[in-house]
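[job 4471] stage=fold_predict status=RUNNING
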Amino acid sequence: MENYSPKNKCLKVTVRGAVQGVGFRPFVFRLASELGLNGWVNNSPMGVFIEVEGEASRLESFIERLRAEKPPLASIQSLESSYIDRRGYMKFEVRPSDEAGPKSTLVMTDIAVCDDCLREMNDPRDRRYRYPFINCTNCGPRYSIIEALPYDRPNTTMRLFPMCDRCRAEYENPADRRFHAQPIACPECGPHLEQWNAAGEILATHENALRLTVEAIEDGRIVAIKGLGGFHLVVDAANEEAVKRLRRRKNREEKPFALMYKSWEKAAEDCEISSAEKRLLLSPESPIVLLKKRPSPANPIVCESAAPNNPYLGEMLPYTPLHHLLMQKLDRPIVATSGNLSDEPICID
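[job 4471] inference complete, writing structure tokens
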């Protein structure tokens, strides 16, 4: 960082929109550091506040690049800047959030697990190997864990899981992908898997819980899996009797069920997928995409009761680390429908 100069100017910037939970503060920190600017950035219930000080030309570049190079998932509704009296800042820092002011900032939706986290999760040398709650600044839960604004760990359900020393070091390192990633966790300090029976008794934990869940699905049982936002009721999509049993339980006679496939390539074996539909399937929002069935699939797997008398299937791909781990073990698609009776809200606890 540059030292204070009497020629420096100071700029106050307010950014509103979807700018919390998308890596905006780390982005601002890195941009200011690259340009040799001093000051600070923090969250507030209204958005992101910045005070930045340095040469006028560098401040102009800062504002231009703030819009042009913002994180991919950020959405800037307004960016207001004005010059204020010089402060004499000697460094740039991420300051604690400001709790005051009206709560008007947008809360980011949950984001499907990114490729970097998937690589770590599948790497036996990584400390988060096969960890079903891996996340970083670019992915993971947002909306489903926040309880208050601004978006900071103490205002989320992750406050129940104090960071270990290694997670804390990543959280505080500006060069790390998990710099100020609020849901940061690992097997040492974060949540873990449990399998419960219908009475709420714990049957297994960690990897054993995943293994027994896969076996239950393969045996034709209905399994409730808690993902982002609530529970999915899951059955083997090839098991006609299991799917019919799920329909009876949900009181859902004919409405098609959503299906989850291991990959878009597997989904393409059953349905026609255009380039636009492929982009939707692979997008960070990971939506359910309505796809036209192939007239004569080579090896039809999905049973008729999944989408009775319907030429389309509603398909999605795994979007959480847990879903990826589950689908790695299964060799067929699953029905993954919301955990609720028809027309009732989804069960979240």
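[job 4471] summary: The longest strand covers residues 9-18.
[job 4471] exit 0
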